[in-house]
Each structure stands twice: as C-alpha cells, then as structure tokens.
Amino acid sequence: xTETERPLEDLLDLAYPYALDAVDEGERRHIExxxxxxxxxTAAAFAAVVYDIHETxxxxxxxxxxxPPPELAASVVRAVAKQADALARRRVELFNAWxxxxxxxxAAAAAVSVLAGVGVAVILGRRAxxxxx
Length: 133
Known about the structure:
Elements: H1 8-19, H2 25-37, H3 40-65, H4 70-130
Helix pairs in contact: 1-2, 1-3
C-alpha cells in the first residue's frame, strides 16, 4: 500500500494533532500533501474534523471569557463559610469531649487520693487506739 492509498482512518487520525497545531512544520506539510492527494470525500472529512475542533476551541475560548454569574461567587462564599462553621463546631465538640475526659480523669485521681488519705487515716487511727506506733 502506498502512502496515498492509506486508509481514511489514518488520515483522519492526523486531523486531531493537525487542528491542535501539535505537529511540527515538516509533519504539517506532509499531512497537507496527503490531504491534497486524497479523494474529495476524504479531504472533506479531514476538513470537517479540523473545522469541528477549531469551532470547539473557539467556543471554549468564548466561554472562558464570560464572567461568572454574580450569584456563583456568593454561593461559593456561603459554601466555604458553611464548611468553616462545621469545622469550627467539630473542633469545639472535640475540645469539649477532650475537656470532659480530662475533668473525669482529674476527678477520678482526686477520688483515689481522698480514698487513699482516708485509708491511711483509718489505719493510723486504729494503730493509735491499739497503742502501736
């Protein structure tokens, strides 16, 4: 099969990098020569693919230049504020839980200390009553 007899799909595959200007100058000339040598239907299909890609890029560029609607910015700010509030509430909940556990541990330690003190006082009181030292 010669270069000019390559299937339509092969030439149409080259339309994408060609339209996106992703080929060097030598490749560009080679592709253009192949399109010139192709039958009318293949050349038209190639041109249609290139045209569609250029139109899509133009549409994207136009959409890129349109300012976002004003309510979008307000919506984004509200969503960020809502997430920040939720995070702050979660931090407070975690701190309160941590504080409650800390308070419980402190109370337990104090109770153990009081019980130990009472136990020592009872033992010393019994020893004192029995006359032992």
